[in-house]
Amino acid sequence: MALQQRKSEPPQAPQSGNDSLAPAWGRAHVVRRHPWLEFITSNGILIAAVVMVFVLGRMINGLAATGSSLPVGLSLIAIHVILAMGLQLVAGSSGQISLGQAAFYGLGAYAVAAPLASQQVNLAYPADAACFYLATGACVAAILIAAAMGLWLIRLSGRLLPWLPSFLFWAIILWCVMDLAMAAELGQQPYLVWSRLGPAIHAMHETILHSIAPTPSTAGSIALGMLVAMAAGTVTASGAAWIVSLTTSNRSAMHLVLLTAAVALMVRSSLWENGPHAVLVFRDFPIFSWCAIAALLAVVMIWRLVYANIGRAMEAVREDAIAAATVGIQPRRQRTQALTIGAALAGIAGALRTQVPREIDAIEFGLMPGIALLAVVVIGGMHSISGVVLAAIVLGIVPAFWPEWQITWYGVMAVGMLAMLRWQPEGVLNNRELWPPRLLTRQNAMPPEAES
Amino acid sequence: MNELLLRAIDSLSAGAAYALVAAGVALALTVRKPVHLSLLAVPGVAMLIGGWVGGAAGGALSPVMLIVTASATLIVCCGIWLILDQMVDRPMRLNPPRVVLLSSAGLLLLALVVIERVTTLWPPSMSRLLPVTTSDPEVPAAHLVIVDSLDSVTWAIALGALGVVALLMTRTKIGYAMRAVGYRPQTAGLLGINIERMIATAVTIAAALAALGGLLYGVRQGHLEAATLLRPGLVTAVAAIIAGPGRPLWIVVAAMGLGAIESFVGTVWMTGAVMRDAMVVIIGLAAGLAQSAEWRGDGVTAT
Q1: In this predicted complex, what is the ipTM?
Q2: Nearest-CB residue to B117 (from A181, A248, A408)
Q3: What's the pLDDT at A347?
């Protein structure tokens, strides 16, 4: 009763005690009464940074016309930062060792590059692209629902009968994948999958498209198309990570390591070695601005996640899962969230990679870059976001500007990772941040003890 | 029907090569739970060495040269991994399992880089060292299904090596000591077992088995590429997922099954390697979802 009464009372200024608290309380009260003011005060530094990056990006993009490789190289470094941020959440905050970040990056890129290369999608027509992805997503969702039903039937009881339909579901999925792969290899249309799914996708695509007037190809429509592509890459990569996490989140850490290694092999050899190597890149597309802003937003997002409740829950699970479970945190959910969010960032990076005007090599999405990203996180410091950003920028310079030295550079990174684990496991910044945590968080979200 | 049977025999032989690699990984898992991930690269290194020697000999090895090549490969692989174990892994053993796993991932990256660079600079070539008698037009159709010499050699080596390892682990003092170290290292140490020596022995034997499996796999493949060099290790990884870490026998069986399925699918329905890896991963996912007993956790103990 007393609590209810206290809640219903209007906020009052402190009557006594430390007088220095009064002005601060007053400011907070004014800010809370005006949401737009709260937004600006909470995100002022972020907004200023985005504007600065946008202006800087325009200047650097202008260099592309002079034939400079600077915009391409800097874009790849920004993509490297996005990937490292995703893995920082997975390996640093959540404590899961995933070798598949580059594979999720490859999946996101493939989801965008394959329809672009086969000219099924034109990003200059965002409604068209959205229809294609929605129709394809509906068909994939139908298959996944079938698989989920199969799983549900497996768990239904211990009798033999429920196993039969579940095996049938898995057999159908296996057959679909085999059919697609065989068709890709022989250069033909897949008989089973395409003859069923293809017309369905096409019909949905046409129906929705006829109800929408096609937009002309302008800078705005290309930007909108790029957002659609980024959404498609994100959904693809995070969906794959979610499926992987379903099988690994309550198992030994080795399970995730081995499975993500196998996924990396699959993505490299099955998708990209026979996949598109170059896609249509829009002339004058400000790729560096996009990559830089996306990297900045990724850093801020991970920063806010790590210093919010969800990040604290992940850290609790990482340090002592049993203790975390006793206070109501679900370890499995936290691990799944971390892997899915990390893969979503990788999907965004993949979608952006398709618009960087450099030939796509299958080696970018294999096991080696996956472990190299892990090396970036280890060298930067597993518990230091700014350290990982710094390491991603420095260690990304060689692959971005001298791609022919990429593999040799991975060897250097491996040696650096081993040396760091042996003599300085806390990373180059010794698990400290370059700037105070409050700088990139919402002003009212940071509890006082977090800054210590 | 005969054609199908022939392919089945060929697939089983491919599975036997994987089984050897899996036996190595299973042995390492028995002694240490955070397994050396770099062991997954051993078959690739063995294939490289074998490929160079085979290429130097003109693609056709005499039995004596074959034995010399295999012995040299095994010695080199065992030596490399023993040195890596002592120099890199041993100082890390007192750290938490997560750090140990990360360091073994770093070693794996180093091994992959070396393999990729060396394969590009000096591409190895391995031809089938023994003639395939089934393609001989002189062989009558009624006797088409015969086991060729390479299959016989593969099976003999695989069965022999697996038998020796099984005897070592179940019938000898050193085998018991290795299992004790894997089960409870502190207690084993109190009983007078030299833990470090047991781990070093297990890593050496595991590297030898993986190298032998890699050699047999490489001989069957012929032309070697970087992706081919990694496949045995990763198929073995999925086999370990399917079977569970505490079941060495089932890891070997699962690897053999995966190898047989992969080879069978590859020869019957596919002309290349597009589908093989996808299928292996899907089987791994399905097995993971079906909850293999050894990997199963209660949602809170996965560290």
Answers
A1: 0.81
A2: A408
A3: 94
A with B: how many residue pairs have Cβ under 8 Å apart? Answer: 205
The SS3 of residue A236 is: helix
Query: Which of A246, A255, A375 comes nearest B109 by C-beta?
Result: A375
Q: Which residues contact A141 (CB under 8 A, 6 or more apart)?
A: none
The pLDDT score that the predictor gives to residue B303 is 38
pLDDT digits (tens, 9 = 90+) for B214-224: 888 877 776 67
Q: Of B106, B274, B300, which is closest to A321 when you measure between CB atoms?
A: B300
Side chain identity at residue B157, one-letter code: I
Query: What is the tens place of the pLDDT at every residue in A61-105?
Result: 777 777 778 888 999 999 999 999 999 999 988 888 889 899 999
Q: Give the closest-approach CA distance of A435 to chain B in angstroms.
A: 27
Residues of A in contact with B33 (CB under 8 A): 252, 254
Question: Which token pair is B2?
Answer: 């005969």
DSSP-derived letter for residue A215 is: P
CA nearest neighbour of A64 among A293, A282, A223: A282
8 Å CB contact between B102 and B89: no
Comparing CB atoms, the residue among B97, B290, B302 nearest residue A251 is B302
Distances (CA, A) of B162 to B19, B63, B81, B238: 8, 22, 20, 20
Q: In the structure encoding, which two tokens stand for residue A130, read together?
A: 């959205």
| Closest residue of chain A to B106, computed from CA coordinates | A414
Q: Which of chain A's residues have a Cβ under 8 Å away from the Cβ of B297?
A: 250-252
> A373 pLDDT exceeds 60?
yes
Q: How many CB atoms neighbour CB A48 within 10 A?
A: 10
A195 touches B: beta carbon within 8 Å: no
Q: Which two three-digit tokens encode residue B198? A: 């047991």
Alpha-carbon gap: A355 to the closest alpha carbon of chain B (Å): 26
* Contact between B117 and A411 using a beta-carbon 8 Å cutoff: yes
Residue ranges in chain B whose pLDDT is less than 70: 1-4, 33-35, 54-63, 125-150, 222-223, 226-227, 244-246, 264-303
- Least Cα distance to A86 among A393, A375, A395, A299 occurs for A299
